[in-house]
Amino acid sequence: MIPKATHHDKMDATKMATSFAERISPLSPFPSESVALVTGGSRGIGAATARCLAAWGANVILTYRNKEEQAVLVAEGIRDMGCRAEVVSADIREESQVLSLFKYIRENFGRLDAAVLNSGITSDGLLATMGQAKWNDVISTNLTGNFLCAREATKVMLGTGGSIVLVSSTSGVAGRPGQGNYAASKGGIIALAKSLAQEVGRHGIRVNAVAPGFIETDMVRRVSRSVIAEAVSAIDLGRLGRPDEVAQAICFLASPISSYITGKVLTVDGGMING
Predict the structure, then answer these.
(1) Around Cβ 211, how many Cβ atoms within 10 Å?
(2) Which residues touch 176 (CB under 8 Å, ≥6 apart)?
(3) pLDDT in tens, 194-221
(4) Domain containing 122: what range?
(5) Does residue 260 carry a catalytic annotation?
(6) Cα distances (Å, whole numbers) of residue 94 to 113, 127, 235, 251
(7) Residue 17 falls inside a structural domain
(8) Could you give the CA distance from residue 269 to residue 213 in angstroms, rounded to a whole number?
(9) Which one of 64, 104, 182, 260 is the catalytic residue?
(10) Is residue 15 part of a domain?
């Protein structure tokens, strides 16, 4: 038999619910003064994520490698929303630049609540004819660069906690012909996220990955129409995804709303892959 709730029980439950609502509003999931980093934030999924984080109440630092004008426009839009936004040039392949980026964060913000590690490139080709330079270029950006950022983000979050979201790909989950280097790098991102989650969970740091499918970005626009048509035919929803749809999934994992989720991979692919 379940005992009836007393008046005091109801008061305690109400107090707890109110406290939670005060900390995490559906309209502003991030507590005030929260700081979020988005690498590769000048366009596509990164830019959409930066805007989403600001809409959810976070101040945003976004990095770019060679799209300064676009990054500045994203930052200006965020400031118009009432949040602080800073733009930092950083080539995450270079350890010295990653160290400078996180030194800037510590000196100018003093905290880091969420890190979205989104930087990535493609350089497709069949593995049998792929040169080592093409392999190394993709691995150094997509895997090594994100390793460096994850390592430094962890250091800033130690003692305070936080959330790290690494952007992988369905190619890293299921593979894709002609993308051996890209798939390997994105599969490595998933393994990195799961391993790091086990290392830092006791310190209040959550680590997850998001694996987008075919999304309407500059990267996908470079793919031939025949390949896109074939991909769409395999998507249950029958269309490409939008950057903002991926961004909302990323923001969910980056925010306190997902406070009991770590070490997971969230695919955002319209039902393209199963399992």
Answers:
(1) 25
(2) 170, 182, 183
(3) 999 999 999 999 999 999 999 998 877 7
(4) 30-268
(5) no
(6) 23, 26, 37, 27
(7) no
(8) 4
(9) 182
(10) no
